[in-house]
Write a structure and sequence with these properties.
By secondary structure, the chain is an alpha+beta fold. It is built from 2 helices and 9 strands; from the N terminus they run ββαββββαβββ.
């Protein structure tokens, strides 16, 4: 098992020149190539979790388990933070909803991150986020310490609050040789 934790942040901001933005897109391509190389090195199983958290205190995590490019499970949990007057004024996280989907149920629930393999995550990043106009959008792309995608999100420069769209991977575990 390989565990990924620390990250390197590369942000594409609206103020970047077009040549600087083009140079940053190279970082995405390098990350995508690293992922393809890792997949080709041996049979691969992995688990990744995405997270959304609103400024209002609501949030959700979705976790996927993937083996040989097949999503085997999806787990979802939503929560809300609230100020607990009865607990010395501490913030408490309360679970609002949770569910699990097995191989034959993937995608049946409405909420949570849509089912995607990491290949599909890279494709979504490239086609739906990095293709946006950097003069009209704040675009954020981050990689983990191994150079793999961690965050690929965008929001209009005219929007405040919860406008980010894309993916935010908070955990990625890779299991090599899953058949052993």
């Amino acid at each position: 098992m390989v565990r990924f934790s620390k990250s390197i942040t590369i942000s594409f901001l609206a103020c970047l020149s077009s040549s600087a933005f083009a140079g940053q897109l190279d970082s995405f391509q390098q990350s995508k190539q690293r992922w393809q190389k890792l997949k080709q090195s041996s049979p691969l199983a992995y688990e990744y979790s995405t997270e959304f958290e609103s400024w209002t205190g609501m949030g959700a995590t979705t976790t996927f388990h993937v083996v040989d490019d097949t999503i085997l499970s999806r787990f979802y949990q939503s929560w809300i933070w609230y100020y607990d007057y009865e607990n010395n004024g501490k913030y408490t996280r309360e679970t609002k909803e949770r569910w699990f989907e097995g191989p034959t149920q993937i995608g049946q629930h409405q909420y949570g991150e849509a089912p995607k393999t990491m290949d599909q995550v890279y494709e979504q990043c490239e086609m739906q986020v990095l293709s946006l106009d950097p003069n009209q959008n704040e675009i954020e792309f981050t990689i983990d310490r191994n150079g793999l995608i961690q965050k690929c999100q965008a929001r209009s420069i005219y929007c405040a609050d919860d406008c980010w769209e894309g993916i935010n991977i908070v955990k990625l575990k890779i299991f090599k040789n899953p058949s052993n």
